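Duplicate of #3305? Posting structure anyway:
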């Protein structure tokens, strides 16, 4: 289907801009939110876990985590060995997560307004399948 990616990208940039606006009250950006979201949904995590999940270089995640530590949203806890950095949300981080999650959910609902439930589910699953296809494609390249 020609033009699919163009339509997706025409939604992506304004969406990221809106998310950044929603979270600016907490001195957060969408990229910082990704780390918070991952930890909230996966529990205490290493920088490697987070960087692998988002397919982002570890130094990028390290910078994000340092910023979140400055904001007292995450903290480092002892890992299996001293070299491993394990991160978890602080009580302040948990509270900020809840507040941002409410705002993001509200944005999601407003963007989905007028779109029937079946179309929403189809889109949700299609995007996951596309991501899986992309990951498989990259894995096949490296073999």
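Output from current build:
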């Amino acid at each position: 289907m020609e033009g699919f990616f163009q339509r997706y990208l025409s939604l992506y940039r304004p969406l990221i801009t809106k998310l950044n606006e929603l979270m600016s009250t907490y001195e957060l950006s969408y990229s910082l939110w990704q780390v918070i979201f991952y930890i909230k949904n996966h529990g205490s995590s290493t920088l490697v876990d987070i960087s692998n999940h988002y397919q982002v270089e570890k130094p990028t995640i390290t910078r994000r985590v340092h910023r979140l530590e400055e904001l007292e949203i995450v903290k480092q806890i002892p890992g299996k060995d001293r070299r491993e950095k394990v991160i978890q949300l602080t009580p302040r981080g948990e509270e900020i997560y809840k507040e941002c999650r409410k705002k993001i959910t509200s944005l999601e609902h407003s963007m989905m307004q007028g779109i029937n439930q079946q179309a929403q589910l189809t889109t949700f699953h299609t995007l996951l399948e596309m991501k899986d296809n992309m990951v498989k494609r990259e894995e096949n390249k490296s073999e």
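Confirmed duplicate; merging threads. The longest helix spans residues 117-142. Residues 4-112 form a domain with the Arc Repressor Mutant, subunit A fold (CATH 1.10.10.10).
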